[in-house]
Specification:
Blueprint (H helix, E strand, L loop, with lengths): L14 E3 L4 E10 L3 E7 L5 E7 L6 H17 L8 E7 L2 E7 L3 E2 L9 H20 L2 E2 L8 E4 L6 E4 L6 E2 L18 H6 L4 H17 L10 H9 L2 H7 L4 H9 L11 H17 L7
Antiparallel strand pairs: 1-2, 2-3, 3-4, 4-6, 5-6, 7-9, 8-11, 9-10
Helix pairs in contact: 2-4, 2-8, 4-7, 6-7, 7-8
Length: 289
């Protein structure tokens, strides 16, 4: 039996061709099990983030379908807080998407945000989620690596990316995802195996907790069985409540165990977060206590 051919990944300086033009590969700026992201100079000498879909020992057609689905979603869902797609192409049996290049990701921001910065980043994420939910799409993979930021030290511009496991809600208000990131598991996924629009809001709560404290709502390195128990016991919500801040109370409601008791919509979250901002600036003490 002949072995499958080894397909070389791009290296700095290599050139990829698409119908739109040439992309010269730069440094690797992101890497995961199913995708790698390279800095690349493309048509018109523009800097891009070029996402390559990793085969990861999967069939060619499976990877092609994943690439095609994400491409179509990015083309269909146009919003100022969703990353912009410029091109999509195949080269040497590997699939690529050329995206706008942002300065950094929320994952790379390890220090606590001040209240003004946290609320502004959250506001823009809520705008993106409201748009997606209004159009029947659940992102389902909201973590720091999928939230891109430019101009972090001025007025930040936030972009949501990676729609690989997003799902359209047709006739049901929930679905059973095929892929689940253990670091952002939601209680309903742990206990009943489904995801809803409120699951995106729970994942937003996890992001906001980290922005607010510089720590994860569930400690890094927690094993899978223990992780499930902490989520089912409502530990993230309890930790948010213990912060004793107005922003912490919003986060705690986002992290409620039962999705029916969380905020119903992204707009509802913003109503309370806006009040938390006012309390932080006019109350007897700041939102950090």
């Amino acid at each position: 039996m002949n072995a499958s051919p080894i397909i070389p990944f791009p290296t700095p300086g290599s050139v990829l061709e698409s119908v739109w033009g040439s992309f010269t590969i730069g440094r690797l700026i992101g890497d995961g099990q199913y995708g790698s992201v390279y800095e690349a100079v493309g048509p018109f000498e523009q800097l891009y983030a070029l996402k390559m879909f990793r085969p990861a020992n999967r069939p060619y057609e499976t990877v092609k379908m994943e690439w095609s689905a994400e491409m179509k979603r990015l083309e269909s869902y146009r919003h100022p807080n969703i990353v912009y797609i410029f091109d999509a192409f195949e080269s040497n049996m590997l699939f690529y998407i050329a995206l706008e290049r942002c300065d950094t990701s929320l994952r790379a921001c390890t220090q606590p945000f001040d209240d003004e910065q946290l609320i502004e980043v959250s506001r823009q994420l809520l705008m993106a989620l409201a748009y997606l939910h209004d159009n029947g799409l659940v992102h389902s993979d909201l973590h720091g690596g999928n939230v891109l930021i430019s101009n972090l030290h001025g007025t930040p511009v936030v972009k949501l990316t990676d729609f690989g496991v997003a799902h359209e809600l047709d006739t049901q208000a929930w679905f059973r995802p095929q892929v689940a990131n253990p670091k952002i598991l939601t209680p309903e996924l742990v206990t009943a195996g489904y995801t809803t629009k409120q699951s995106d809001l729970y994942q937003l709560g996890l992001l906001m907790f980290r922005m607010h404290t510089g720590e994860h709502a569930i400690p890094e390195g927690t094993g899978y069985p223990e992780l499930n128990r902490l989520i089912a016991d409502g530990v993230p919500r309890q930790r948010a409540e213990a912060l004793g801040t107005s922003v912490g109370q919003v986060i705690a409601k986002l992290l409620r165990r039962r999705d029916a008791y969380r905020y119903r919509t992204a707009r509802d979250v913003w109503d309370d977060l806006r009040q938390a901002r006012l309390l932080a600036t006019t109350g007897p003490h700041s939102a950090r206590g």
